[in-house]
TrEMBL record, chains A, B:
GO terms for molecular function: iron-sulfur cluster binding. Residues 5-109 form the 2Fe-2S ferredoxin-type domain. It comes from Histidinibacterium aquaticum. InterPro entries: 2Fe-2S_ferredoxin-like_sf, 2Fe-2S_ferredoxin-type, Beta-grasp_dom_sf, Corrinoid_activation_enz, Raco-like_middle, Raco-like_middle_sf, RACo_C, RACo_linker. This is DUF4445 domain-containing protein. Pfam families: RACo_C_ter, RACo_linker, Raco_middle. PROSITE patterns: 2FE2S_FER_2 (PS51085).
Length: 681, 681
């Protein structure tokens, strides 16, 4: 008796002997090779496509003959006629192993394929979603041996997929009978398993063979905006993105106003919960339309949000988050039915996963940033700042990660700024001031030209120049500082001191005229002393938070800085550092991570392992509560100067000139800079 | 060093040595003695009361000294001052074991106490409810080591109760924070564990120590009426009972009309689901009011119902149950949130349990009857008949149990009877006819006198005599048969043949005048030939179903008969047998089980072991589908005669005279007796 044929799978290198005639898919399962299948080996789904390699493979020590696999069969021919099969490909469930063979499993046939999640960081995520598609053939009912349709479906899952424990919520049970009959006792299920080996839950059911793909929503639920990414659960790719304003804004601009609204109004928290859930429900329909998919293909949603939004999403009154000791109702991750969060148009059994919170002020959004940026895997000490209405700050490396939040307020987003506005066409987003002439030039959103370039006026005629957004005000203030229009303490000099008529008097203080009123009625845009103070408050809070983590870690500097948040992507590192928003570091060590929280949500959507990782990671993070830390106040005061009263900022000063000035305003000073702002979202 | 003291617990007999100073509760837990505690040994709940016994116990081989337990302590004194502690009782968590001692655990201190569930059967059920009360002291939040309140609560359950895996649905999470603070970090939880060792779910939470008791609803959801029993989950006793009409009646009187309504009307099933859930919600409030308890103390609901009601309750379209092969969507038991069934006033996390169905026509109500009557434990062969609109029939003993349902229709409940009415004051419920004079006498509901007794007219003046209910018509027909007014085929004889003017002509047939119209306007009540035919149809179906099970089992007689169902309680065994409703058996072998389905629901409410038992038992029951069995039709036809065309009924004939008659109606016969009725509920 000759030896069983040897099969070697690439790229895994797994190998073993199987009896001649064994289908490739069966051999792959026996050897623990990651080879996909939805139809369970019936030659329908083609997910198990493989590429046999022929010839001599000295590396593997085998020679593969042309007849190493059994002949191309009728099922493969049928599939090829209908859907097409690329040259050299075989269906793993049909092709049988007859002689020694080397079989390559292409990436698209691997369930746990690696996807590179962003070009910048070139970091790979292994697909491991909680929900997968599975096709089963269910036995028809038999009057003489009566069992429920669901019980026979479970039996089929056990027999055909070795899935033992299966549940289904009522919305699925109520759909089961018509779908089974429409599919003539063949159905495809969306099966959700929060962990490998955990009981499986049927979250959607389609008649016959359903190819998919399944989708998930990665939702970054911010105080101001809600952003969603429709994510393909097979490839991990983003099919569509959509965003809406958070309708809770009508109950309060910042988080503390919403907490107050809940405290002052009976049922107020419930109102806010309803508002945000309705918005999410509409958003899920819109994004499905945008992505041209049936919303019923959306089987999961992952949420990241700050603690107040977290509680309001879950229907928990956030009142405790408004007062010390800032106790969360629950800090662990939450896994529930999406229907419980009011998502009515997605798959009837769709699941929702909310990332864990780190602390009372450091939410699931910060956890998502940690998941995306992996400070715990960093060789050097990294400071990660998610700049929003509240800043989430992480500091760490392989040894230890610390986290806090800091109440920056909405100034960085253009709010509380005299000419401030949201980032929208017409808003000034970049600013440069000539250090000699003190003349400005700028760019507005929606136009690629600088204001001093030919054609700028024509290009901006449609939108006009409507105001200044967050990145614009930061650049303006930093440029004013570099151009000597602003002293170290943040005072704007008058025309005499600065030598430019753009330093205009406004009451007892001065302002810098960035853009005069236009003939067409566009507004006069100045940077006022009040604007400077608002930015100083925000940046001092941000710096103080970062500094507190550095104290806790016992360091005076960090190796690199990552700016996260949608807004972080638009901040120029140099200007951020001139302002003193972040600690001194070489400019090329400041990078942007884009919407890291949203990326973290997508990673959690694509990978159960990532969920487990962040659930464990948040417990290990050292939490620092800024609200009760006396040094926070000290750091906050010292950070009021631009860039800083005491920190030397050597890297910065080596890169850009920072004139040391002090304007005397003759009693016109104001004390807002030392007013400690209440925590706000 | 002397030996550790010996402690012997009675009635369990468990014994062991513990170090001197060990509290009795601790010793009980170590030795696996069933001693209750809600407060976890803090001297608050008094559930762990024990009665130490002093003196010489030769049986146990110990002498118990007066100082065997440590002295009465301040906690016990405080409890005694506040709530009172019976003489001889100690708090098990306070009293310490110092020397050899015998300690009796009284029944009320046992969690798993036995309760005798009904005097008739003297069968004991061991209390083992899925939900229990547990008090915990939760650590206060610490800003420096932030964790969620829920996470600290879980920690407390692990530390104080060794309960590892604990979940809570959103409605509980949203209540957690205010309740923890109101209770000053001491709370009492309702903890639901479907099985010993399964993850626990918090279903309600009270500030501080909450004594209970917890309640459950045992709900018998019938086609016509919904009956609920508010059951104390500590004692197993019924605190209140209430019933309402099933509002689905407006969509169809019987089950098949409701299935038709669903088939003919888009969204019809949903309408019926809403109607029944709203009724259940109201009923749960009413029964709590009736029982003078807070509906929030209701933490569980157990449902028993026929398959169509089962599906409509769960929101599943019952259309498949209206046609062969009568496939259930799910046949296993269902365990879900009561809120999913629309119960809004019970505890926010309350659970619902629906007993398993046996087959497409044999529902959770039949399973409940099996749970209550335990045919699988019977030494002799018992036939159990749950008489309602549909009859559920069980036949079995230790060896094997069989089940079927039979479409008797509503005649046994007084419907489809010319003077028929529901069982209500004014309805004739008992009938006797003198075999000599052929004169009737009867009793009506609401009056203890027979119609020929003095004072009857006065006693019934208020209600009048309004019609005849199910038990009345059965007795009337049986009495007519015994008095020679009716022949074996079911024909009513005319005045000439019977010799009484009460045999009145009605068209081409005859009727028996039971009660003439009164001066006060009461109706003339006759038993018509049509009434006889309706009863014949119903009883033939019932007999044929029973007979089919007997065939299947290979027997020609049974050892005893149990009549279940609210209606079963009112049927006289003798009259039922004269009619041939049930097979021949000695009259003293026919007993009534009362509302066995409701009793089964209560047992499932009080005992997880009972749930597991019936879940396993339904799989073992042999299901017989009457609708497709050709012999059913044969048995049905043969059973049309009264009592039966071929079965000899020796026990019956030995007990009562049954004149063999055959009236000739001269072509006035009708063929309704052979019209096969559609299955109805």
């Amino acid at each position: 008796m000759s030896e069983d044929p040897l099969v070697i799978f690439t790229p895994s290198g797994k190998r073993g002997r199987v009896p001649a005639g064994t289908p490739v898919l069966t051999a792959a399962r026996q050897l623990g090779v990651d080879l996909d299948s939805v139809c369970g080996g019936r030659g329908i789904c083609s997910k198990c496509q493989v590429a046999p390699a022929y010839g001599q493979f000295s590396k593997h020590g085998v020679t593969v003959a042309e007849d190493a696999l059994g002949p191309w069969n009728a099922v493969e021919q049928r599939y090829h006629d209908k859907r097409g099969l690329a040259a050299g490909r075989r269906l793993g469930c049909q092709a049988t192993i007859e002689r020694d063979v080397v079989i390559d499993v292409p990436p698209e046939s691997q369930v746990h394929r690696q996807v590179v999640r962003k070009a910048a960081a070139v970091r790979a995520v292994t697909m491991d979603p909680a929900t997968r598609l599975v096709m089963v053939d269910v036995a028809e009912p038999d009057m003489h041996s009566p069992t429920g349709d669901f019980e026979r479906l479970r039996r089929a899952l056990l027999d055909q997929w070795e899935i033992g424990e299966v549940t289904a919520d009522l919305p699925i049970l109520s759909r089961l009978q018509p779908v089974l009959r429409k599919g003539e006792w063949r159905v495809t299920l969306a099966l959700h398993q929060p962990r490998e080996g955990a009981p499986a839950r049927i979250t959607e059911i389609w008649p016959g063979f359903f190819e998919g793909p399944l989708y998930g929503l990665a939702i970054d639920l911010g105080s101001t905006t809600i952003a969603a990414h429709l994510t393909d659960l097979v490839t991990g790719g983003v099919t569509a993105s959509a965003g809406v304003m958070n309708p809770q804004i009508r109950f309060g601009e910042d988080l503390m106003s919403r907490v107050s609204y809940s405290m002052m109004n009976e049922g107020g928290a419930g109102e806010m919960t309803r508002a945000v859930r309705e918005a999410l429900d509409r958003l899920s329909v819109e994004i499905a339309t945008e992505g041209k998919i049936d919303p019923g293909q959306i089987v999961e949603a992952v949420f990241v949000c700050n603690p107040v939004m977290h509680h309001l999403l879950l229907g928990i009154d956030p009142v405790e988050l408004g007062q010390a000791p800032f106790a969360l109702a629950t800090s662990d991750s939450v896994e529930i039915a999406a229907a419980e969060l009011g998502l009515t148009s997605v798959a009837p059994g769709a699941r929702a996963y909310v990332l864990p919170c780190i602390a009372g002020h450091v939410g699931a959004d910060a956890a998502a940033v940690a998941l995306s940026e992996e400070p715990e895997a960093s060789e050097d000490l990294v400071l990660i700042v998610d700049v929003g209405t509240n800043a989430e700050i992480l500091l760490g490396d392989r040894n230890r990660v610390l986290a806090c939040s800091s109440p920056t307020g909405p100034a960085f987003e253009g709010a509380q700024i005299s000419a401030g506005q949201r980032a929208a066409p017409g808003a000034i987003e970049r600013v440069r001031i000539d250090p000699e002439t003190k003349e400005p030039r700028f760019k507005v959103i929606g136009c690629d030209l600088w204001s001093d370039e030919p054609g700028f006026d024509e290009a901006t005629a449609a939108t006009g120049i409507t105001g200044i957004c967050g990145s614009g005000i930061i650049e303006a203030v930093a440029e004013m500082r570099m151009a000597g229009l602003l002293d170290t303490s943040g005072l704007i000099g008058g025309a005499e001191a600065t030598g430019t008529p753009r330093s205009v008097a406004e009451g007892r203080t001065h302002a810098y005229l960035l853009h005069d009123a236009t003939e067409s009625g566009g507004p006069r845009i100045t940077v006022t002393q009040g604007d400077i103070r608002a930015i100083q408050l925000a940046k001092s809070a941000l710096y103080a938070g970062a500094r507190l983590l550095m104290d806790e870690r016992g360091v005076d500097e960090v190796d690199r800085v990552v700016l996260a948040g949608a807004f972080g992507a638009h901040i120029s590192p140099q200007h951020a550092m001139v302002l003193g928003m972040i600690p001194d570091v070489a400019l090329d060590k400041v990078t942007s991570a884009g919407n890291a929280a949203g990326t973290g949500a997508r990673i959690a959507l694509c990978s159960r392992a990532a969920r487990a990782k962040i659930e464990a990671q948040v417990r290990r993070i050292t939490k620092v509560e800024t609200a009760i830390e006396p040094r926070f106040q000290e750091h906050f005061v010292a950070a009021n100067a631009i860039p800083h009263a005491t920190a030397p900022y050597p890297h910065l000063r080596a890169a850009v000139p920072l004139p040391e000035l002090s304007f005397n305003v003759g009693g016109g000073g104001e004390s807002g800079g030392r007013r400690r702002r209440r925590r706000s979202g």
